[in-house]
Design brief:
The model has no long low-confidence stretch (mean pLDDT 95). This protein folds into 2 domains: 287 residues, FAD/NAD(P)-binding domain (3-Layer(bba) Sandwich), CATH 3.50.50; 98 residues, D-Amino Acid Oxidase, Chain A, domain 2 (2-Layer Sandwich), CATH 3.30.9. The strands form 4 sheets. The chain has an 8-stranded mixed sheet with strand order 6-5-14-15-16-13-17-20, covered by helices on one side. A 6-stranded mixed sheet has the order 8-2-1-12-19-18, with helices on both faces. A 3-stranded antiparallel sheet has the order 3-7-4. The two termini are 33 Å apart. It has 12 helices and 20 strands. The longest helix has 33 residues. The chain is of the alpha+beta class and 413 residues long. The structure holds flavin-adenine dinucleotide (FAD). Flavin-adenine dinucleotide (FAD) binds next to helix 1, strand 3, strand 13 and helix 10. Keywords: FAD, Flavoprotein, Monooxygenase, Oxidoreductase.
């Protein structure tokens, strides 16, 4: 059997990995449990220059531009409307990195990523809920709830926070290495999508800072993405996404001023999508076992405050793809041990950076909801670290990239 990667999960990270493998000449197939991709999820997504650069490399940046809006800056204020600060830092991203920070919605992102797939009917299979992974010395078999199965060389679990692949790994690995729930939450989240109202400017993010809570509004070209973070007692109870947001959960925010003319309820009352979930955080101790590896939310959860979790997952996809491509170049049928070594190198290369993003994002959030008003200097210190971390991000090493945009801060890779 020729080397074939089985990707489980058609979220942003699984779809991005599919594009990266394809561009790097590695055969793959992707299985998604939902009946369709994309989803109609209730929240937007930030893409940072490390990802917009790779979208350029993959030939997808023009399509992304059509469905996203570049971020320009942030306004910070108190619930009464008192302005604390205003900046244009996001717009500096072009000059610093050659690429923008953009905001889009997940459905549009999925469409862009799907548009990059050659012969999607052969490679993307929906309605396939993974139930079992069986590893053998030279291959893996994945089994689905509909009774079908498929064989490949390795499995990459991009199946999100409650990963079935992670559960399956635990039957092969020593006891205790893969926990049932490796994450915990200290914040509850509410999110929604509402129209653009007068006084809300596309690309200009808004943060309103309360005692133990934060509201974010990120206006894209056609809508406003709303997020509430509310501090809760730390828990590792599983509280999955729910589209039902109880009125009492948002009542206290109704009259919070987002701008001079717009309150939270002005937007919320016109929402066309909503949801609530706990914001889990954590990094799994072990990212792989045997011929199976994990990626994206299946292995790391970062507070959404910084808007980087999916970006980190996508960068991980580049790192993993590069290492697989190097292995396969002279060795088209690697042994389990050789594959394991690649997975181990993938984890080693990324886990320090992932933990840094996770700590920065959490510190940023804790600073934003401080009792005596936000610690803007601390948040500024986090922001100051970001360009250097971004500039160390990976791209696809085996994919030509002659027309990379010029940047003031050189990319390390
Ligand atoms: C409110 C909020 C805002 C956020 N904002 C940002 C942001 O601005 N920027 C950012 O980078 N990140 C953001 N994040 C984080 C981001 O959403 C996640 O990091 C990202 O969705 C992870 O992508 P993924 O593909 O790993 O997992 P998921 O998006 O969870 O996708 C997993 C996929 O696997 C499928 N699946 C699950 N189980 C199975 C199975 N057994 N068989 C087959 N398929 C299966 C699922 O149906 C799903 O399609 C935010 C998160 C939240 C909650």
């Amino acid at each position: 059997m020729a080397f074939k990667v089985i990707i489980i999960g058609g979220g942003p990270v699984g779809l991005f990995l599919a594009n990266g493998l394809q561009a790097s000449g590695i055969d793959y197939v992707l299985f998604e449990k939902r009946s369709t991709i994309p989803p109609s999820t209730a929240f937007g997504i930030f893409l940072w220059p490390q990802v917009t650069r790779m979208m350029h490399q993959l030939g997808l940046l023009d399509s992304l531009r059509k469905v996203s809006h570049p971020m320009t800056g942030m306004i910070h204020s108190m619930p009464t409307g008192e302005l604390l600060s205003s900046d244009t830092n996001f717009s500096k991203s072009y000059k610093t990195h050659g690429y923008p920070v953009v905001v889009t919605d997940r459905g549009s992102l999925a469409q862009v990523l799907l548009s990059g797939i050659d012969k999607p009917e052969e490679r993307i299979h929906t309605g396939k809920q993974l139930t079992n992974v069986i590893t053998r010395p030279d291959r893996v078999t994945v089994e689905f709830a509909d009774g079908t199965s498929f064989e490949g060389s390795i499995v990459i679990g991009a199946d999100g926070i409650w990963s079935t692949v992670r559960n399956q790994i635990s039957q092969y690995a020593p006891d205790g290495l893969f926990l049932d729930n490796p994450y915990q939450a200290s914040y509850q989240g509410v999110f929604g999508r509402a129209p653009l109202l007068e006084g809300i400017t596309s690309g200009q993010g808004i943060e309103v800072h309360g005692d133990g809570w934060l509201i974010q509004a990120f206006p894209s070209q056609k809508e406003t993405h709303l997020f509430i973070y509310k501090s809760i007692k730390t828990t590792n109870e599983r509280v999955p996404f729910s589209p039902n947001v109880p009125e009492e959960l948002i009542a206290e925010f109704a009259n919070v001023r987002l701008t001079d003319n717009v309150t939270f309820k002005d937007l919320w009352n016109q929402r066309f999508a909503q949801g609530t979930a706990n914001f889990e955080e954590g990094v799994v101790e072990m990212w792989h076992w045997d011929r199976i590896a994990l990626i994206g939310d299946a292995v790391l959860k970062i507070s959404p405050k910084q808007g980087v979790a999916a970006n980190v997952g996508m960068e991980s996809a580049a790192c993993l793809t590069n290492k697989l491509a190097a292995l396969l170049q002279n060795n088209p049928k690697p042994t389990t041990q050789e594959v394991s070594k690649v997975f181990s190198a993938y984890q080693c290369e990324l886990e320090g950076k992932v933990s840094t993003w996770q700590r920065l994002s959490r510190f940023n959030l804790d600073s934003a909801v401080s009792k005596n008003g936000p610690r803007l200097e601390a948040m500024g210190a986090v922001a100051a670290r970001v360009p250097a971390i971004v500039s160390r991000s990976f791209k696809f090493e085996r994919v030509p990239f002659a027309d990379q945009n010029a940047a003031d801060m050189p990319w390390v890779h």
